[in-house]
Amino acid sequence: MKIAIIGLGLIGGSLALEFSKNHTVFGIDNNQEHQQQALDLRLVSKIISFDKIDLMDVIVVAVPVDKTADVVFSILNKIPKNILVFDVGSTKENVCKKVKNHPKRNQFLATHPIAGTEFSGPKATVKNLFTDKVNIICEQSQTAKEKLELYQELMKPLQMRFVFMENASQHDKHIAYVSHLSHISSFMLGKTVLEIEKEEETIFNMAGSGFESTVRLAKSAPTTWTPIFIQNKKHILNALEEYIRNLQEFKRNIENKEQEKIYNTIKKTNKIKEILN
Fold first, then answer.
1. Same domain for 161 and 223?
2. 153 with 179, same domain?
3. Do residues 150 and 28 both lie within one domain?
4. 20 and 152 belong to one structural domain
5. Of 67, 89, 107, 209, which cross-links 63 as Cys (Cβ 3.0–4.6 Å)?
6. Separation of alpha carbons 31 and 28, rounded Å
7. Which of 245, 121, 250 is nearest to 181 (CA)?
8. Residue 112 pLDDT exceeds 90
9. Are residues 149 and 185 in the same domain?
10. What does the pLDDT look like over 164-219, one tens digit per residue?
């Protein structure tokens, strides 16, 4: 098949790396440096312009989430009926609303492969990035059956686990807690320590593996995460309010030397390992 990937960052580039094993992959990206890197790394066979997308069999939209809805809508306006279009963004409600009444809505599939690292750009692409990861598919009933089957066949070699969520808003709510809040926590921990470090130069020499693993996500690109936080504002604010409430309560426990409450909070939270394992 001929596959066009719009946006050659970590996710788009890593998909190109996988798809190029069995298909011909073309790249579209506004960043000329990214274009050249994708060619040099052989992620794509050729860089093409947007007006060539109607020659493809599959189009992947891997642009920042604040651009996704408009890009998908423009694609649906242009393509013939045989082409499958899917996006890979971490928010789904906005794009699904945008194309809800489009006459070619059934050619679009809203997907979210939950995979990635703290790095970005074509040089950050990772082989087998998606292996054993979860791939969320939203509003699958709105996509033509043959297009959904084509997508599943295309993704099969990546060995991902499919999870279907008909409600795009519920997807964004859950992702706000399990992904977006994690990144905010990492960014704010990193910010806090950087501010303290101005006065205590040895703090990073003292930092152990716990600190390193917790702030790993703070290395993530602001170009990726700023639009995610804005687009998923409603659900992220709810997650933050709950998170801040827990922090304030834990702070009071420490202030009041409430050892039993601290112990019980940690003990109850330890149960998360049973879920993650």
1. no
2. no
3. yes
4. yes
5. 67
6. 9
7. 245
8. yes
9. no
10. 999 999 999 999 998 999 999 999 998 988 888 776 666 666 666 777 788 888 89
Tokens 């593996």 correspond to 209
pLDDT tens-place string over residues 133-169: 999 999 999 999 999 999 999 999 999 999 999 999 9
d(CA 105, CA 98): 10
At 180 the pLDDT is: 96
Q: Where are the alpha helices (DSSP H) in the chain?
A: 10-19, 32-40, 65-78, 93-99, 145-155, 168-175, 181-197, 203-206, 209-214, 222-231, 233-255, 259-269, 272-276
Domain residues for 187?
Answer: 171-276
Q: Are residues 128 and 223 in the same domain?
A: no
Q: Are residues 223 and 142 in the same domain?
A: no
Q: Note the pTM of the prediction, 2 decimals.
A: 0.88
Q: How far apart are the first and last CA of the chain?
A: 37
pLDDT confidence of residue 27 = 97
Per the structure, the count of domains in the chain is: 2
| Cβ atoms of 45 and 20 closer than 8 Å | yes
